[in-house]
Design a protein that fits this description.
The chain is mostly helical. It contains 4 helices and no strands. Helices cover 80% and strands 0% of the residues. The protein is elongated, with a radius of gyration of 25 Å.
């Protein structure tokens, strides 16, 4: 069942000339296709995990294997970078 906004959009569409209707239709198809691609694109777990491991290695190289990083020190570092 269509809501009021959907009915208004359809009414406005029919008020357009043929060229404008074609442009609007093409845009809608492009938007629908891009939404479908985003929804169906699979999460690349392997690539994500590789990035996590690279980040961990970078942190270990800065603080050593026995050092730890607390949440407060991470927040302080973020604040310094934002300034």
């Amino acid at each position: 069942m269509m809501n009021t906004l959907e009915r208004e959009v359809i009414e406005k569409f029919y008020q357009l000339d043929r060229d404008a209707q074609r442009r609007v239709r093409e845009l809608l198809v492009q938007e629908a296709d891009s939404e479908t691609q985003v929804a169906t694109s699979a999460f690349d777990y392997t690539a994500w995990w590789a990035e996590v491991e690279a980040l961990q290695a970078e942190i270990r190289s800065r603080i050593g294997d026995t050092g730890t990083v607390g949440a407060l020190s991470l927040l302080d570092e973020l604040r310094e970078e934002a300034s």
